[in-house]
Design goal:
This protein is an alpha/beta fold. It contains 10 helices and 6 strands. It has 2 domains: 146 residues, HAD superfamily/HAD-like (Rossmann fold, 3-Layer(aba) Sandwich); 68 residues, Putative phosphatase, domain 2 (DNA polymerase, domain 1, Orthogonal Bundle). GO terms for molecular function: phosphatase activity. It comes from Onchocerca flexuosa. InterPro entries: HAD-like_sf, HAD-SF_hydro_IA, HAD_2, HAD_sf, PGP-like_dom2.
Length: 235
Amino acid sequence: MNVLDTQITHIIFDLDGLLLDSETIYTQANTEVMKSYGKKYTMELKAKTTGMKMDDAIQTMLEHENLIGTVNLDEYKAKYLDLLGKYLPESRLLPGAMQLVKHFAKYKIPMAICSGSNLFEFDAKMKNQKELFDLIPLRVLTGDDPHVKKGKPEPDGFLETMRRFSVKPKSAAHILVFEDSINGVYAALAAGMHVVMVPDLRYSNPSETCKDKITLILNSLVEFKPEMFGLPPYD
């Protein structure tokens, strides 16, 4: 059974909040930095900025909280990176992540990670997750990749990831993206790809209009059935 008219041949994963529980760490770090300025980091603010390049996200937060002119972007960023360096190595795998990645690897289905992280963040997360990352050698980190001009919700990162597959997909329609954020979903759809969304409903509840464009919405990666997309089923 295949719910799509096209055969999926390639997979792109988001990272934070999808494979790793690192979104809770980003929330913690932003909460601590905002508190130091007498402000509150809300889920509304998180929803607006998830997937953006770091500088763009910080700028958006400073504008939203009327901190422009009071707090320098580089000052906020320095505090934020210091906390991320401490906390990100504690990131844990989310349910179903390793099982799914190993399954695709077993059947040699081309995979990639497209994340809003920069290299500093990625290396911190990788410290205790080497097994996972060794299975997905293609990673596009839009946070500081010079070939990606705009982060999510723009499609640049996903299109660049598609370009870098050693075995090229016939078109974007043959790629299945796994995402947890609204910005990530919009980016994948704008790139012409199919999307499975695993949202954290605390900050990423898709609208009815958005739901109509998402191929599948799951509570967890554990629920994913590869055969629904014409892919080999679990043993």
